[in-house]
Amino acid sequence: MTDVLLMLLFAAAIGIGWWLGRRYQHHLQQPSVADENYYRGLNYLLNHETDAALELFIDSLEVNNHNLDTHLALGSAFRRKGEVDKAIHIHQNLLNRPGLTHHQLAQAQLELAHDFVKAGLLDRAEQLLLESAGFSPNKQAWGTLLLDVYQREKDWQKALDLAQRFELQNIPNLAVRLSHYACEQAQEAIDQGDLNTAHTYLKQAHELKADNPRVALLYSAMALHAGLYKEADEHLRKLAQQDPSLVPTILPDLARCFAASDDQEAWQNWLSSCMQEHPSTSVMLALAEIIRQASDSEAAAFVTRELRKRPSVKGFNYLIELHMQWATEHAKESLEALQGLTMALEQRKPAYQCKQCGYASNNMQWQCPTCHQWDTTKPVYGLRGE
User: Fold this and answer.
1) Distance set, CA 239 to CA 72, 151, 194, 210, 289 (Å)
2) Sequence spans of domains, the chain
3) Is residue 119 within 8 Å of 88, Cβ to Cβ?
4) Residue 236 CA to chain centroid, in angstroms?
5) What is the pLDDT of residues 23-46, one digit of tens each?
6) From the centroid of its chain, how far is CA 61?
7) pTM over 0.90
8) Between the CA of residue 104 and those of 43, 70, 87, 115, what are the distances in Å?
9) Which stretches does DSSP call E strand in 113-156?
10) Which helix or strand (DSSP H or E) is residue 248 part of?
C-alpha cells in the first residue's frame, strides 16, 4: 500500500508540474518539455524505478504555492516508509529553491528536522529548529520536536532553558514533559546529595505542573531520608490525592510514616477510607494485616468479602496462606499445590503497564522506555494486579 501511495503521489506531482509547464509554455508560445518529463516520469513509476522518478520530479517540478504541500507530503511518506535519505533529499531541495516565504521555509525546515531526528542527526535537527523559531507556523509541533531532541540527549537543563525562552510551557501537553525534566534534574541533585538544588528544581517542576505526583514523591523521599516522617507523610498523602492509582506504590513508605508516629488507629482509618474511595489489593492486604493482629479468622473473613467484590491473584494467595494454618495434613497438601499456582501467576504478572503503548514492567518508570511518553506507566489493576 505504501508503494502504491508513493506512485500516486509521484503521478500527481509530475502531473501538476506537467500542467503548470503547459500553461507557462503556452503563455510564452514556446515548445514545452513538460510533456516529455511527465511521460518519462510515468514510465519510471510503471517500471518501479522510483529513484529515477524521484530525481525527475525534483528536477522538473517547480516549487510554488500550488505544489509545496505535495513536496512535503511526498517527503513525509518516504520518512514513514523508512527511506530517510530520500525524505532528506526532497526537503533539502525545497530549502534550496528561491522564492519561499518565511512560512513555507519554516514548514520545510520542520519536515527536514523530523528527517534528521529519524536519522539520529540530532545536532542538525536542533540547528534547523532554532533557525525557524521566530516564524514557525505550528509552534506546538515545533516545540514538541525540539523537546524530543533534548529528551533523546537527556539534556534536561537545555530543554528547560529553551522552554523558558520560547514560553513552551504555555503550549498544551508540553508543561507535563517540562515538569518531569525538572524532576529529572532534581533526582540527579538528590543522588549527588545537593538537596538545596533539588528543592529549586522541584519548585520549578511544581510551577510547571502543580499536580505532578512525582514532585510530591521526591519531596517525600528527601523527607524520609532526613527522618522527617511528618513532612513525608504530608507529601505522600498529597500524592495519593493527585493520583490514587499510585497508592500501592507509596504504601510501604506511608506505612513507615504512620509507624514512626505510633498511631495504629490513624493508619487503620486511612486504609479504610482509601479502601472505600480507591480500593486496591495492596490496601486490602495492609488492612488485613492490622485485623490479623487481633484475629486470623476475622482477617480471613475480611479478605474473603473483599475478594468477592474484586478478585485478585495476590489476594487469593494471601487467603490461602491464612487457611493453611487451620487445614488438616491432607487439605494442606492441596492448598500448597494451589498456592504454588497462584504464586507462579503472581510472579509472572507485571506490576506496571504503560497506558499509552502497553509496555509492561515490574518497576515504576516515569517515562515509558517504548513510547517515551511521561506519566503513562501505572500499577496494573484487575485479577492479575491490584
Assistant:
1) 45, 25, 23, 11, 23
2) 349-386
3) yes
4) 24
5) 544 444 444 444 455 556 556 555
6) 39
7) no
8) 31, 13, 17, 17
9) none
10) helix 247-261
